[in-house]
Amino acid sequence: MTAGSRRVIAGVSGSLRSLGALRAGVAEAQSAGAPLLAVLAWAPAGGEIAYRRGPCPLLLRLWEQEACERLRDAFDQMFGGLPEGVAVRQLVVRAPPGPALVELADRRDDLLVVGYGGRSRLGYVVHGAVTR
Questions:
Q1: CATH number of 8-127: 3.10.300.10, 3.40.50.620, 3.90.180.10, 3.30.70.20?
Q2: How far is Cα 55 from Cα 25, in angstroms, rounded to an integer?
Q3: pTM of the full structure
Q4: What is the pLDDT of residue 132?
């Protein structure tokens, strides 16, 4: 492994389990001297298919702003702001979380950290699972 080539990528949604993943990602990045990429993936309310049926650019901007606020709030809840001793980049993407995170973790030495959702069978069918 080349020094400085590792990145830690943490999936963040604002859930309790994703906050645990964020904490673990920060700890790993600090100990490895690696940068942290905190990613919050979002989709329009009702999903992309519903949005295409009735697009509203104003709502889309509001949803994206809310996603940005959720990512900032996650750092505030866990660390009282951005943590010390680690380079943090925050990224908000409009995409399904699982595929977006896997696509971002495209380097050989990347470490992807996600929280385990623990959904019911119905929740898994409706929302899927980032860990899968």
A1: 3.40.50.620
A2: 36
A3: 0.83
A4: 45
